[in-house]
Amino acid sequence: MVDVKRILVIDDEQDFCRMMVEMLSGEGYHVDAAVHPIVAVEQVLSGDYDIITLDLQDFNGKDVWGLYRDQKCTPGPSASSCPVDTT
Asked: Is 27 in contact with 49 (CB distance < 8 Å)?
């Protein structure tokens, strides 16, 4: 069984989201998209994504990552499963 990678594209430009969904789906990925910040946060929290791209003018990406990290990572001896901001 092939492990299909899941990608979430978050961008406030709807045409860009459509293009990315079409292109990445054509390469065999499962792709979801969000153009509104609230919907994006809901999808981040409810989905198990391998990759998330984020480009929103009116919403801080660090806030999305903070919500994701708070919900998805459990305390323990290893933090390797948590997303890390390297910027």
From this structure: no
Tell me which residue of 72, 18, 64, 45 sits closest to 32, measured CA to CA. Answer: 18
Which tens digit of pLDDT belongs to each residue from 2-38? 789 999 999 999 999 999 999 999 999 999 999 988 7
**Scanning the structure block, which residue is given the tokens 């293009």?**
19
Domains of the chain: 6-72 (3.40.50.2300)
Is the full-model pTM beyond 0.85? no
Q: What is the DSSP secondary structure assignment for residue 25, as one 8-state letter?
A: H
pLDDT of 67: 66
